[in-house]
Amino acid sequence: MGTSGWLVASLSTVAMITFIPALQLTSVANVAVIIATGPFVAAALAWVWLRESARWQTMLASLAALCGVAIIVGNVQANSDIRGIVLTCLMTVAIGAMTVIVRRHKNTPMIAAAAWSNVLGSIVSIPFADGISAVGATDLLILAMFGFFQVALGLTLFVVGSRLVPSGQAALIATLETPLMPFWVWLAFQESPAPRALFGGALVMAAVIADIVGDTRRKR
User: Fold this and answer.
1) Quick check: 159 and 110 in contact, CB under 8 A?
2) CB atoms < 10 A from the CB of 121, how many?
3) What is the per-residue pLDDT for 167?
4) How far apart are alpha carbons 154 and 158 in whole angstroms?
5) Are 188 and 28 in contact (CB under 8 A)?
6) In terms of Cα–Cα distance, which of 39, 31, 43 is closest to 72?
7) Residue-range domain boundaries for the chain
8) CA distances from 176 to 76, 84, 125, 192 (A)
9) What single string gives the DSSP state of each residue in the chain?
10) What are the two backbone dihedrals, phi and then psi, of residue 36, each rounded to the nearest 5 degrees?
11) 132 vs 86, which has greater pLDDT?
C-alpha cells in the first residue's frame, strides 16, 4: 500500500476507536455537531496540502448543513464531558485528513487500507474489551452486523467515493449521517423524531443535494 495507504489505515483506526468512547463520554448531540464540521476540516486540509480550492457553492452548502445540524440539537442542555469532546474532535480531524489523503493518492489501493484499519482497530481495542468472555450468540450477531454494514461496507464505499469527488464535497455528503440518525432510531425503536429534527434534517439534505446538482451542472 505504501506510506499513504498505511497512513489512511492508521487515521481510519483512530477514527473508529475514538467514536464509540466519545458517544459514551458525552452526548450524541455534541458528537453530531462536531462531526458536522467535517466538511470545513476536509476543505481546509485540502487547501493547505493540495491547494484544492473549494467551490463557494460547496462552502455555502457546508454552512447550511451546519445550520441544519444546529437546529436538530439546538435544544439540548446536557453538560459536556471534556474527554468525549476531545475524542470527537480527534475523530473529525482524522476523518478529514483521511479524506484528503485518499483524494491525493488515487492510485493507492485504499480498499486494502480500509481492511487493515479494521485489523489495527481490533488489535488496539482487544485490551479494553473487559466483558468479551460474556458475549453470547445474539451479541455476536449484532457485532457481526455492525462490523459488516457500519465498518466494512460503509468505510469501503466512503474510501472509494472519496477518490472521485473533491474532499470538501465528500465530507459534506458524509454529513448526511447526522440527519439520518432520527430516521434509524424511528425505524428501530418507533421513536418519532421531533419537528426540529425533521426540519434540520431536511435542511442538511437539501444542502447536500443542491451541492451535488450544482457540481454536476458545472462539469457538464
Assistant:
1) yes
2) 18
3) 64
4) 6
5) no
6) 31
7) 2-124+134-219
8) 20, 22, 27, 19
9) -HHHHHHHHHHHHHHHHHHHHHHHHS-HHHHHHHHTTHHHHHHHHHHHHH--PPPHHHHHHHHHHHHHHHHHHTT--PPPPHHHHHHHHHHHHHHHHHHHHHHH-TTS-HHHHHHHHHHHHHHHHGGG-TTGGG--HHHHHHHHHIIIIIIIIHHHHHHHHHTTS-HHHHHHHHTTHHHHHHHHHHHHH--PPPHHHHHHHHHHHHHHHHHHHHHHHHH-
10) -65, -15
11) 86
Measure the CA–CA gap between 208 and 200, rounded to whole angstroms: 13
28: its cell numbers? 450524541
Name the residue with cell 479494553: 128
Q: Calculate helix-pair angle for 82-104, 2-25, nearest 10 degrees.
A: 160
Weakest mean pLDDT among 59-63, 100-104, 167-171, 196-200 = 167-171
At 61-85, the pLDDT tens digits run: 778 877 877 776 666 555 557 788 8
